[in-house]
Task: structure prediction
Amino acid sequence: MLAIALMVMEKRLDNFASIRAMLSIPVAPLQYLVSWPTTAISTLQTALSTHDNLIKENLRLKTDQLLLRSQLQRLVAIESENNYLKALLQSSQHVKGKTLIAELLAVDSEPFVHQVILDKGSREGVYVGQPVLDAMGVMGQVTQVNPLTSHVLLINDPHSGIPVQNVRSGLRATAMGDSYSGKMRLMYVPKTADIQVGDVFITSGLGERYPEGYPVGKIISVGKDPSHQFADIIVEPSARLDSSRQVLLIWYQRHA
Result:
């Protein structure tokens, strides 16, 4: 009845608008109270949706970051490999005669054996006794040849021996592989010999197994035990025997 009366008064009275405005003041809190649950639910839904979206975006960004990092690592690896190949090609320019780049297929897993297998064989003209280099120095010598592959004995194998010469003093010696340390030792060098830590040794060309003048290694230790006749001299190989993937096969002049 009150509602009907208000409707009639609104139609009949010209100044009822001001009365209606006054009546809306006490009604407003009720309207806010009634609408609050709807507003709260809507706000909560928006917050949950935003939280969900943030979690999904965070996971997506982490995934993208991981992918970008893996791509960056791959690019760094490719750049490093390209730089190594450039160094290897520059090294090949100083070699007299024919050269061929080969790649490592496998590493011998036997203990105290330092040998690798290359992806080039007799089909490419590889021969037993052929010298093998990397971008830094002498790696070893071919010991077995198959049609598609070849085996290389590294210079740090105990069965390997290479004639070397001291760049500084001209001293000649033979460097043998050391199976325990993975390095090399100079054999039968008198304790009185002019040799120092840091001396660089290169191939002497004697024995006609390796061409003359290629880096072999650097002296890292000189021991002179009074009870021993000869000095105990350790050589760090110049070649990256444990990390090189590409190597250089060279045709020594007498085989050219």
Observations:
- DSSP finds two helices and twelve strands in the chain.
- Residues 41-93 form one domain.
- Helices lie at 2-12, 16-93.
- The longest helix spans residues 16-93.
